[in-house]
Write a structure and sequence with these properties.
The protein is an alpha+beta fold. It contains 18 helices and 14 strands. The structure holds zinc ion.
Length: about 425
């Protein structure tokens, strides 16, 4: 087999001839020509036989590595005049418009991005992290199932920060499918309004249940656009607030210790954070010991801990609506009298949202369901911290938790 024919089979690129192969110091350079005669607009697919002119310089794409060699593709393309998009370089079947990578390469990067860490990806595919961000934006734009916004009956609207300094994304989950189906930068009523606007009036009014956190923004938007829907406060968010209140108590106490001139005690206490916040069955032995020490010491931190655990207990599986109602009221009254300011505030918040919380219990919205998806999203967004844009972070969330099925390129060629 001649070299060109051999490479043609090796590359598995649709619609091209291999014209030449050349070995550079660090890469193999393959020159291509398109098989098709007609020219296609890369944006809209408009096709014409008329060539406007030819590119002055070759286009270059990176393809899947060949052993340890980088593989570079080159082609001098033609230009056409699209009635809608003006003069453009013709589209190619093996790469997305505007990309310097082949679809196979982008698919590999996207698949890796959902499964492994930043350093591994960067070293393995030899592209920087911002480029990974742009690649996954393109892949998500292409692969996202357009039907994902149909038949939404039980949804959750939630925010997640994708970077420090409160850069947030609003995400909409389809609870019945267990997927994230929509997202946008921002975290207020206006962001949620965008979602309802995008799905339109009739689909908004088919939604039966919307689960939310206890902030005012999303609730306002939900009441306005989907007044028929029951608003349920997800127990996941209630428990998260319990953790936050305990953390506030702990921090206050820690500051007292520090200022009282016992830095060692303060240090030990700082390490106690996870012992306090994790659920007891998940503690390791050291953490369990720390917790026993805190219990023996008593005091406000321990009181805060028992309140946090009592709150978590309310949403344990197997309790009836009547049980939960009693337990919530008991919690509100205990926390109100606790003399721990963060818990007094929390009691007020829970009292205001009591109905929404009970709706969640009645509808069987359990903590585990949202928590699993939430944990997955949070794990992913931490990886997205290095991205240049909210859209890249969102693309990573959609790739991992959305209605997209990704496979490494060899599987889709099989
Ligand atoms: Zn066009």
């Amino acid at each position: 087999m001649r070299v060109n024919a051999g490479f043609s089979r090796l590359l598995r690129l649709p619609g091209v001839w291999v014209r030449g192969v050349q070995f550079d110091t660090d890469r193999v350079v393959v020159t291509l020509a398109l098989r098709r005669r007609r020219l296609l607009c890369p944006v809209c697919g408009y096709s014409t036989a008329h060539r406007h002119n030819r590119q002055q310089v070759e286009s270059v794409w990176r393809h899947l590595d060949l052993g340890t060699w980088r593989l570079e593709l080159r082609a001098r393309l033609r230009r056409l005049r699209c009635p809608r998009h003006g003069v453009r370089v013709e589209g190619v079947p093996f790469a997305r418009p505007g990309s310097r990578f082949t679809r196979d390469f982008e698919q590999l990067v996207a698949w890796l991005a959902t499964r492994t860490d930043k350093t591994t990806i960067r070293r393995m595919v030899r592209v920087d992290w911002a480029t990974v961000g742009r690649i996954i934006e393109r892949v998500t734009g292409d692969e996202l199932d357009p039907d994902r916004l149909e038949n939404l009956f039980e949804i959750g609207i939630d925010e997640v920060s994708w970077r420090k300094q409160h850069r947030c994304l609003t995400l909409v989950a389809d609870h019945l499918r267990g997927q994230i189906v929509w997202g946008h930068e921002g975290r207020d009523a206006a962001t949620a309004n965008r979602f309802f606007k995008e799905i339109g009036r009739s689909r908004s009014q088919a939604i039966e249940v919307i689960s939310l956190d206890m902030g005012p923004g999303y609730a306002k938007s939900a009441r306005e656009h989907a007044p028929q829907a029951t608003i349920a406060i997800d127990p996941f968010h209630v428990c998260a607030l319990g953790n936050r209140a305990l953390d506030d108590v702990r921090r206050g106490y820690w500051n007292e210790l520090r200022q009282s001139g016992d830095p060692q005690a303060a240090r030990r206490f700082k390490d106690a954070r996870w012992s306090l916040l994790k659920a007891p069955p998940n503690l390791n032995e050291d953490q369990a010991r720390t917790l026993r020490r805190l219990r023996n010491a008593g005091g406000e931190v321990w009181r805060g801990y028992t309140l946090k655990e009592a709150l978590r207990g309310i949403f344990a599986p197997g309790l009836t609506l009547a049980d939960v109602t009693i337990l919530i009221d008991r919690f509100i009254s205990k926390a109100t009298r606790s003399r721990l300011r963060p818990f007094v505030t929390l009691a007020g918040t829970i009292r205001r949202h009591r109905d929404g919380i009970l709706h969640a219990i009645r509808l069987g919205i359990n903590q585990g369901r949202t928590e699993a998806l939430n944990n997955k999203v949070r794990l992913i967004t931490r990886r997205a911290y290095g991205f240049h844009s909210a859209n890249a972070a969102l693309a990573l969330v959609m790739l991992t938790c959305g209605p997209i099925t990704l496979a490494p390129p060899h599987e889709s060629h099989a």
